[in-house]
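Q: Two folds, back to back.
A: First:
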Amino acid sequence: MSHYDVAAYIWPSYHYEPRMEHWWPEKDGEWYTVRRGTPRFPGHDMPRIPLLGYQDEADPLVMRQHVDLARAHGINTFIMDWYWYDEQACFERQLNDGLIPALEGTDTKFYLMWANHPATSLWNMHVDEHEELWTGRVSREVLEPMFDRIIENYFKIDSYYCIDGKPVFSIFMYPEFIAGLGSEEAAVEAFAWMRQRCVDKGLPGLHIQAIARADHSVVQEAVDVLPISNVYQTARALNFDSATSYQYCMESGSEGDYVQWAQKSFSCWDYFEKAYNIYFPHVSIGWDNTHRHPSMKTAVMGSTPDAFEACLWRARQFMDERPDQVPLLTINSWNEWTEGSYLLPDMRWGYRYLQAVRNVFG
């Protein structure tokens, strides 16, 4: 079987995070919310119960178990959601204390997706209304020391994922990046500085990856800087090296039948490729955000390992049709329990989602 880079996103909240203790008082992160999942409508798959237990994912022994489990099923890369709020890192313990030590002695890689969205009370499962706590935007004065820290702490690690020798750095909401810097021209200059800074630090350069989305409603606050109609024109101006997706809900909404939901996202792939030149396909497992919203009564229905596997075959075909492109696939997610999109085994499906990946990618 040909080599593929199969990369699963990690939401690093299943460990003690001091800055969120007021919402997760049991000191093991968002497991607090997962344990309180309840069915909201007939046929609703709740609660979600992890087969491996409510593990501390900042523990390197736990993460080595996860690395080995992923490797056994064809997943060789993790994409870590990475956060920077109020001029300091957040949710970083799983990466520093858990994953990086667990990767030693393996050929599994990781890279960062800067989740530069605002931090809100979304993570408080007891309220429907969400107030902003910290902005995800940064000025140039904040960006430069933040990025230097990323280079020194992560890009130089042997297990960091690279394309053509260049570390891959993904950005979740580039309209917010532009808004923080003040203009498209300032963002272009910042990207040029970031690339040159990597060269100055002894690296071959930097591969900047966009998170593509068809629905930019989540960045309405940035329209004063970047009109939504110009999003992909701006993507060209920023000269991203590639793009991928993060979740089907960004193209297909938050409810409906899984098959139709996935198909709507597939229909965007050619458009994304035209907008970004290189698009790496993405597959999501499901979407159910009711954990975090006490009044929510909708979710994507009909998610099954077989339907997920069919999507993986579709993504593999997309990659096989582009033999000159790096065969990278992204999956949401390794552990998004509170969004109903995870590969880790649970009490309903066992290991079948992982086995679906192995069926397609070996």
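A: Second:
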Amino acid sequence: MQAGRDDFVIAIRSAFLKKENKQKFSLLALIFLTFIIILSEKFNLKPIDYLKISLREVAYRSSFIVSAPENFIKGAYVATKNHFSVYEENKELKEKLNFELSKNYNSEYILEENKRLRSTIDETTFLTSEIIGKVLIDKKSPFLRSVIINRGSKDGVELGMAVMDKSYLIGKVVEVSFTTSRVLLLSDLNSKVPVDIMPNDIQSILSGTGGDEGVIQYTRQQDLIEKDAVVFTSGAGGLFKSGIPIGKIAMDPSNLKTVVSFFSDFSQLRYVKIISFKKETE
């Protein structure tokens, strides 16, 4: 029994000794391989270079193969995300397009309805042509207010055409020569223009005073006129189209008359627009 136990111990020791020999051999092999690599770096041996190149190639190929599934998953995720993003964007654009189309349809309907109503009430639609002119002479007298402009019949100017400063009415053409015209300003004593006073829609006549303002005359609703109410052309008489702004109400302290302060300063006119409002024909 004792001899068997000794044999077992001997066998274990032999195994450990063999294992230790193997470890020593492996360590020596690594040292030898390191020494060879160092020498190859120093002496630039071609076989070792080929070996390093081959190892790098294997490493690169292996990295590519290993990373391929990950890259595929990433690409699929990004493509799917972009697809849903494009889908949502397309859906949003379609909604905006439908909304804009509905607005266009509404606008078309309103325009057609407006034409139909104008036809029903026999209201005139105007076509506008515009000429730009320069003020040459400002003719002043105690009560008369007019200017001479450098546009005449050769430029298409005709009697009665409206004259505007920006978008404000300032007068009308009363004399035309070949190269020049005379404009009677709204402040002239002889100027009479049918107007609407907003917001109460009061129809009246604006007359010139010979000064720097106008005055409201011939109205039956004097008590409804408010300070700072805006005065527009009414279109009555067919000379001017309706809705051209002129000025605003500035009540006279004496309450004997309703004064209109013009939007344009007639003493500072340099360039004006001569406009013809012609009836539109179907």
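Q: And?
A: The chain has a mean pLDDT of 76.
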